[in-house]
Specification:
With about 230 residues, the protein is of the alpha+beta class. The chain has 5 helices and 4 strands, in the order αββββαααα. The protein has a 4-stranded antiparallel beta sheet, with helices on one face.
């Protein structure tokens, strides 16, 4: 490209000269003219970004002197890192908003009214309730099976218990522990489901009332509260 020398002519003369040079060079379209004031107060122009003004704002001008666009200062490494961090954060926020909009629209599609939501909650809880009832019934069976084993073990107080009896008691203990853990997990799941549907219902009431999808942010998670025995 044609480089204009740093000759101190009036800006309008330099712009016109640049335009004539660009046209004589055979360019179909004249590119923008860069203009800036350097650190010494000098007005500089060029047909490409001006190194002396890399840390300053540069104006890209049309041939008639009007501003085509503003070229911001070149960022330092720290400024570039900060800029990229802001851009990443903004991108994440935009993605979160789009996800919230999508989730809210899905909620409205699944639950047009409160009875539909209540029916879904009842169906979800019913499946887990069945599991709890089954596990509690199994615990009662294990308790009945254990009683004769304990009674038989009374005969061996102070003596070595037969291996078969010891194994039967150990197996009963292991099965009982497993079933109790399963029951607790199922009860935790019931709490989680209730918390989820409570959060959904509170959100849906606002959506049904006219709130815009996504306007309430992300739907909070509804994990079950920590178990008391796990906190110790």
């Amino acid at each position: 490209m044609v480089q204009l020398s740093r000759v101190r002519f009036p800006v309008s003369h330099r712009l016109a000269a640049w335009f004539l040079l660009a046209c004589s060079a055979g360019g179909a379209e004249a590119a923008g003219i860069y203009s800036c004031v350097d650190g010494n107060g000098r007005r500089l122009t060029s047909d490409r970004p001006i190194p002396e003004c890399s840390t300053r704002e540069q104006r890209m001008l049309n041939a008639d002197g009007s501003v085509q666009r503003i070229v911001p200062p070149t960022r330092t490494l720290d400024e570039q890192a900060e800029y990229e961090a802001r851009e990443r954060k903004a991108a994440l926020e935009r993605a979160a908003l789009q996800d919230a909009i999508r989730r809210d629209r899905n909620l409205l599609g699944r639950f047009p009214d409160e009875p539909a939501h209540r029916k879904a909650r009842e169906a979800a809880l019913d499946d887990v309730d069945k599991g709890v009832r089954f596990s509690e019934g199994r615990l009662k069976e294990l308790e009945r099976e254990r009683k004769p084993l304990v009674d038989e073990a009374e005969f061996y107080k102070g003596k070595q218990m037969p291996l078969k009896l010891r194994q039967a008691l150990d197996a009963n203990d292991a099965a009982t522990t497993a079933q109790r853990s399963l029951v607790q997990n199922q009860k935790d799941e019931i709490l989680r489901i209730d918390r989820l549907y409570d959060a959904e219902l509170a959100r849906l009431k606002k959506l049904w009332a006219g709130a815009a999808p996504g306007s309430m942010g992300a739907l909070p998670s509804a994990s079950a509260p920590p178990r008391k025995d796990a906190a110790r």
